[in-house]
Specification:
14 helices; single chain; 7-stranded mixed sheet; Aspartate Aminotransferase, domain 2; binds pyridoxal-5'-phosphate; PLP-dependent transferase-like; 3 domains; alpha/beta; 13% strand; 5-stranded mixed sheet
Length: 475
């Protein structure tokens, strides 16, 4: 049998070092220019990958396997660090976080129980406490958990809000009995441009897509507060039960930010849980100059933070915070083989009782690494650069008669279209992709739009000028 895991044996330690060095070399030699993508078309790529035989009778050893990965896979991977990559809320990874990732995967600790990750558990607890303070919550009363991403953070909040409302109104324990017969009357209010995890989560919680009430938005793509109030009032008089509202703090396409204070007032009037989907915008807390854009986030009951978006940390890295730690009760369940109550009484914290996942990565280390290394000031400068780039691109496009750019950016996304029409804009995006430049595409009021999601602080004004010129040439 060839070597299996890390041990204290000098030979295995040396082999680990060799593997790490060779992998680093393979990564660095797999790209020679600054393009985001090789430009290969999907059918050709599929054919290449299909030719790989995954499991043969005999293995080929590490060196040949790495060579195969380099030849057949790595050259066609998407290179998130490229200044030509700007389609989605999908960021390059800060360089120090790659070191944190190495530690996370080498130790392979898991967050479900203290005995699977002693220091990892204590670090996550500490990071969550400090995040609660950073987002204006009381770190003694509040609580939270790391999750796989914004979708799971939103799902966690929706489950918590559903169970809390049903318990308060009907004295009914959803965890034990499932949904009560009144479940079809529950309603969640969110903007018509909120993330589709609202619908997905509502399906998973047994409430269904129909429980999601989409609110119209104003010209800045924020929830129209007057309409929100009117729709809730009408729903209540028709017998529906408002249980939750979700304000988006950075919509996926436009980066627009809903008015938390105004939504809080309506939520209070109807006893609704107010969740903030700040998957995109949460990184603004790091900038003294820009954090005012978030509004009164401390008024929320819970908040989704995605570190793998504007915080530029590697996938996966997200957290959900609750103003009251009691809201996490739906996730508490004890098993004799995992998280014994007697251990918890003696101070062993088992984080499995705070979320949806069981086995879970030690993602909090990446937050600690980058926070500690850069400090609020250093990190804040990155966020400010992203916002500044978006403002620059928007001003350029808005001033050019060949383009329309209908919404001024609040964060780092710019949605625009070339005036030559839907089909031309679709073709422009495809052609850029084949040239290794990846930009986004969406639809606004029935019109095809292009989108720059600027999450790379290395993008310069010159890069943006060149991209705009290339788009004009292609049009
Ligand atoms: C506003 C918003 N919420 C939630 C999500 C989902 O996050 P994830 O992809 O990490 O599940 C996204 C993803 O882009 C988003 O834009």
């Amino acid at each position: 049998m060839s070597r299996t895991t890390l041990t204290n044996n000098p030979e295995e330690r040396a082999e680990y070092g060799r593997i790490v060095d060779k992998t680093k070399e393979a990564i660095l030699s797999s790209f020679q220019d600054s393009s985001a993508f090789s430009g290969i078309d999907p059918l050709a790529l599929r054919k290449e990958i299909e030719e790989i035989s995954i499991l043969d009778e005999d293995g080929i050893g590490f060196d040949a396997t790495l060579e195969l990965a380099k030849e057949k896979i790595m050259k066609n991977l998407l290179r998130t660090w490229s200044t030509g990559y700007m389609p989605h809320l999908h960021s390059p990874a800060l360089i120090e976080s790659l070191s944190a990732e190495m530690i996370i995967s080498a130790f392979n600790d898991s967050m479900d129980s203290w005995d699977q990750g002693p220091a990892a558990t204590e670090v996550e607890v500490k990071v969550i406490k400090d995040l609660l303070k950073l987002f204006g919550f009381d770190s003694q009363k509040g609580d939270g958990a790391f999750t796989s991403g914004g979708s799971q953070s939103n799902l966690t909040a929706i489950v918590a809000a559903r169970d809390k409302c049903i318990s308060r109104l009907f004295g009914w324990d959803v965890k034990k009995k499932g949904l009560p017969s009144e479940f079809g009357r529950l309603r969640l209010y969110t903007s018509c441009i909120s993330h589709f995890s609202m619908e997905k989560s509502s399906h998973l919680t047994g409430l269904g897509y129909d429980s999601v009430r989409h609110l119209p938005v104003n010209s800045k793509c924020q929830v129209d507060i007057g309409e929100f109030e009117k729709i809730v009032r009408e729903d209540v008089s028709s017998g529906f039960i408002p249980y939750m509202a979700v304000a988006t703090i950075g919509t996926t396409d436009f980066g627009s930010i809903d008015n938390v204070e105004a939504m809080r007032e309506i939520c209070d009037r109807y006893s609704m849980h107010l969740h903030l989907d700040a998957a995109y915008g949460s990184a603004l807390v790091l900038s003294e100059r820009e954090k005012h854009r978030l509004g009164k986030i401390e008024l929320a009951d819970s908040i989704t933070i995605d570190f793998h978006k504007m915080f530029l940390l590697p996938i996966s890295c997200s957290a959900v915070l609750f103003k009251s730690g009691e809201d996490l009760e739906p996730f508490m369940l004890h098993a004799d083989y995992l998280n014994r109550e007697e251990d918890e009484e003696d101070g062993y914290i088992n984080l499995v009782g705070k979320g949806i996942q069981t086995t879970r990565r030690f993602d909090a280390l990446k937050v600690l690494f980058s926070f500690k290394m850069r400090g609020r000031k250093g990190y804040g400068e990155i966020v400010e650069k992203l916002l500044e780039n978006a403002e620059y691109a928007f001003k350029r496009l808005d001033a050019d008669k060949d383009f329309t750019a209908p919404v001024a950016p609040e964060l780092s996304s710019v949605v625009f279209a070339h005036v030559s029409g839907d089909e031309a804009n679709k073709r422009i995006r495809r052609k850029l992709l084949s040239e290794g430049i990846v930009i986004g595409q969406t639809v606004m009021n029935g019109t095809v739009m292009l989108k720059l999601t600027l999450l790379n602080p290395n993008i310069t004004h010159n890069d943006l000028d060149n991209l705009i010129s290339r788009i004009k040439e292609l049009a």
